Amino acid sequence: MALENLILEQAEGIATIFINRPEKLNALNKVTIQELHDTLQLVENNPEIRVIILTGSGQKAFVAGADIAEFAYFSAEEGAALASEGQRILFDFIENLKTPVIAAINGFALGGGLELAMACHFKIASDNAKMGLPETSLGVIPGYGGTQRLSQLVGKGRAMEMILTAGMIDAETAKNYGLVNHVVPQVDLVATYTTLAHKIMKNSPVAIGKAIEAVNANFKTDVNGFDVEIRNFGSCFATEDFKEGTTAFLEKRKANFK
């Protein structure tokens, strides 16, 4: 698959996707959003891939927002369609993948870039990272799930402040808010996400997928998360991974999940 705005690297069960538009600070446009969808679907369907890393190329930006030139003259109907389609094919799509996606925020994550990071299952940031949702300074609001996911992650009050002021926060503040899990020097970012990926890869990929679904259910208004947990807990008992995991525990050896 030829990629215009992404670089895909796959090795040792880890797929690393670099958003690669350095001249635009990796800003999201329609082509990039579609390429991300297609590439994520490709690696999700690869049984050899156990963890996905999403990051930006270079050292300045993860994604410094959406490509404003593409929608500056949209009508209200076109704007709503843009948000709906983007959420469907990328942001909600990432959130519901069964393969864990880690956002490695290596610089600016603004607007659609922060929304992209928030859709990932968890986030780490380099110490030079800056994050924010500046949309209100452009006369619009976040449209790729930002008003919802930011409130879930940092609470209503902090989300309101970040969105209404359109300001940026640094990586340490983001960690204190609960927006990112870890902050590390930029030179340590790759080693950190690789270590985390290897920890995940020791565990059952079937159970991980079911855990992601159960955790996400807590944030869906029309779903009972406890019911999803009960259903997914029970379904694990019928899997080869459960047999291997419990047998390995009883035999005092490491599990070998396929």
Question: What attributes does this structure have?
Answer:
single chain, 258 residues, 2-enoyl-CoA Hydratase, Chain A, domain 1, Lyase 2-enoyl-coa Hydratase, Chain  A, domain 2, 2 domains, 46% helix
Short description, anyone?
This protein is of the alpha/beta class and 258 residues long.
Question: In terms of topology, how is this protein built?
Answer:
Blueprint: E1 6-11, E2 14-19, H1 30-44, E3 51-56, E4 61-63, H2 76-95, E5 101-105, E6 108-110, H3 112-119, E7 122-126, E8 130-132, H4 146-154, H5 156-165, E9 168-170, H6 171-177, E10 182-184, H7 189-201, H8 205-217, H9 225-236, H10 240-250
Parallel strand pairs: 2-3, 3-5, 4-6, 5-7, 6-8, 7-10
Antiparallel strand pairs: 1-2, 8-9
Biggest sheet, strands in spatial order?
A: 1-2-3-5-7-10
How much helical structure, as a percent, in the residues? 40-55%
Arithmetic mean pLDDT: 96
Q: Could you list the spans in which at least 5 consecutive residues all have pLDDT below 50?
A: none
Outline type: globular
Query: Major β-sheet, in short?
Result: 6 strands, mixed
- Name of the CATH homologous superfamily of the largest domain: 2-enoyl-CoA Hydratase, Chain A, domain 1
H/E series, N to C?
EEHEEHEEHEEHHEHEHHHH
Give an overview of the whole structure.
- With 258 residues, the chain is an alpha/beta fold.
- It contains 10 helices and 10 strands.
- The strands form 2 sheets. Strands 1-2-3-5-7-10 form a 6-stranded mixed beta sheet, with helices on both faces. A 4-stranded mixed beta sheet has the order 4-6-8-9.
- The relative contact order is 0.11.
